[in-house]
Amino acid sequence: MASGQTVPLERDQAHYLFGVMRLTEGSAVALFNGHDGEWQAEVTSAGKRGGELTCRSQSRPQAAPPDLWLLFAPIKKTRTDFIVEKAAEIGVARIQPVQTDFTNAERIRRDRLQAHAVEAAEQCGSTYVTEVNDLARLDRLLANWPAERQLMFCDEAFAEASYGTPDGAPRPLGDAPRGPWAVLIGPEGGFSEAERKRLHALPFAWPVQLGPRILRADTAAVAALTLWQLHLGDW
Amino acid sequence: MASGQTVPLERDQAHYLFGVMRLTEGSAVALFNGHDGEWQAEVTSAGKRGGELTCRSQSRPQAAPPDLWLLFAPIKKTRTDFIVEKAAEIGVARIQPVQTDFTNAERIRRDRLQAHAVEAAEQCGSTYVTEVNDLARLDRLLANWPAERQLMFCDEAFAEASYGTPDGAPRPLGDAPRGPWAVLIGPEGGFSEAERKRLHALPFAWPVQLGPRILRADTAAVAALTLWQLHLGDW
Q: What does the UniProt entry say about where the protein is found (chains A, B) (predicted)?
């Protein structure tokens, strides 16, 4: 974006700004496109089916989210929407829905989930938008895993008090390397025994346990992202 | 509860167990009453409008939640329900909805929120039930605050990097006293300036900030409870 640049409005954007929010020509609007920070813009044309904004000046620089992915097994619609919204608020660069051995979902509505991530960014005054990927199989993702990306996974059946290594020795998450990370949340039924064995054997995987009570998958997602942000992120 | 003790079923319980779950006489059921742990029971009478369970043996001892209260300003219905459900899962002894200067809610449906807390306990295999109080004014609660209970409050406008004292010097939450605590989450519009001043001046109050992005009130509640559990609770 640049000062003086005009931005055409689509029909539903015009409806929201002029029909719902009752803005008129001359009204101020905050704009972001995910790349150029936040800009103050002015309504320079307002119609029923369209309109135009004109950029005036940058009000905030572009911020980058932590280089964190969230991998989760989709659950019921409302709770899946919730996970996407909360992940976007807490600060995640990419959301990757995964199919595990015990995941029921065969497909997801990627466009709808992406729209939730956009709305969360608008609500929270974020300048970036969390990217939502299509559903992928967990085993294939792990087979092609980028070597430098660490993976924190939540294992209800993991008996250690807090954190542990694949060989069972505990290691504090605060000592873990910075840089690219992912957080993996299993489905409501947990991981299969084969998945657990495979995950525990991965050199880049860090098992964690989230307290003594059983958490729903959506609660576990928010709690795990908070834990990561506190230890390794920008909180 | 005691071995051999019978428990009569109300109409909706009978409908759920025999109509929805299709249990019959002789089926096993896990029971808890919030005081006596978890018991294995058997269906000894199954009817359309009622029935009877008979306790066999205790399967788990009674667990106590951490002595933690959650104070929050009610927001929209779905998000308020969500806060109650998540607080019960993460582990809170009591939920106290509060009216602050910027809270819209005049009243809440205490019975409905309590039912959500019961359902969360059932879902999560908990043996205790989080108690939901009626709506109360924050200023009155603070005026009669129990001296030994610490209060963590989330202040979006608080400029310190992480935690701070009323006089501005940071103090790590890990050094905070154990024992009774409360976590306070403000309304979507934040606390009023008068409330902020009062909270920061309280000797038992610990301000925290939850990352650089603005969180919705329900996200802030889950993140703050996770933070408390990690530093001061039983996680």
A: Cytoplasm
Contact A234 B214 (CB under 8 A): no
pLDDT digits (tens, 9 = 90+) for B139-194: 999 999 998 999 999 877 654 434 444 455 555 677 788 899 999 999 888 899 99
A contacts of B229 (beta carbons < 8 Å): 211
Q: Name the residue range of residue A191's domain.
A: 68-232
pLDDT for the residue B162: 40
Are residue A227 and residue A166 in the same domain, yes or no? yes
Asked whether residue A207 falls in the same domain as residue A153, the answer is yes
Q: How many angstroms separate the CA atoms of A153 and A66, rounded?
A: 18
Domain co-membership, B43 together with B138: no
Does B104 lie in the same domain as B78? yes
Q: Is residue A145 in some structural domain?
A: yes
Mean pLDDT of A15-36: 90
Name the residue among A214, A219, A229 with its Cβ closest to that of B86.
A219
Closest approach of chain B CAs to the CA of A50, in angstroms? Answer: 31
Angle at B87 between CA B64 and CA A92, to 5 degrees: 130
Q: Above 0.90 for ipTM, yes or no? A: no
Sheet holding B51-60, edge to edge: B6-9, B51-60, B38-46, B28-32
Single residue among A22, A43, A60 that ends a domain in this structure: A60
* Closest residue of chain A to B87, computed from CA coordinates: A219
The pLDDT of B206-230, averaged and rounded, is: 90
| CATH number, domain containing residue A25 | 2.40.240.20
B49 plus B96 within the same structural domain: no
Chain A residues inside the 8 Å CB shell of B214: 89, 123-125
Number of independent structural domains in chain A: 2
Query: Cβ–Cβ of B213/A125 closer than 8 Å?
Result: yes
Neighbours of B107 (CB within 10 A): 10
pLDDT band at A158 (very low <50, low <70, confident <90, very high): low
The answer to whether B128 and B89 have CB atoms below 8 angstroms apart is no
CA nearest B224 in A: which residue?
A226
Last residue of a domain, one of A20, A40, A60: A60
CB B129 within 8 A of CB B101: no
* Selected residue of B32, B129, B152, B213 to mutate for chain A interface (largest A Cβ count, 10 A): B213
Q: Which whole number is the average pLDDT over B84-99?
A: 95
pLDDT tens for each residue of B42-77: 999 999 899 999 999 998 888 888 899 999 999 888
